[in-house]
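Lab manual, section 2.4: Encoding a predicted structure.

Procedure: take the sequence of the chain (129 residues), apply the prediction step described in section 2.3, and record the output as structure tokens. A sample record is shown.
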Amino acid sequence: MLRPVLRSHLPLRAKLALYKGYIRSRLTYAAPAWYALCSISQRKRIQAQQSIALRMIVRAGRYILNDVIARDLCIETVEEFIRRIARRMFDIADQGPHEFLRNIAPTHERSPSVRPLPREVTKTPPPKQ
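Recorded output:
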């Protein structure tokens, strides 16, 4: 449904605004709550959807890397975007006037075999080796 719009001759700024306002908001709806529970393959699938949309927007050839497209358009990865909105959501909840929202999803010590809690999305990932 959006394919013709993304492949049209609209200005690049209009296509990026459409992506940021409509597509990315659909991809990451309520993500601070569910993204920590996703497996690695599900996270890759969400990132692939972003890459497909950005590739359509700029009409990139097959030999241009997705990272290069995202960097040139100044678009952060889905994981970075979700980490940023999760931090903002938890900060607003912790500093807000409502007592019952403070520390709504605390960070607990857990074994490495258990899936993470939603607040653990806000932690920075370990550096890649």
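Check your result against the sample. The chain has a mean pLDDT of 84.
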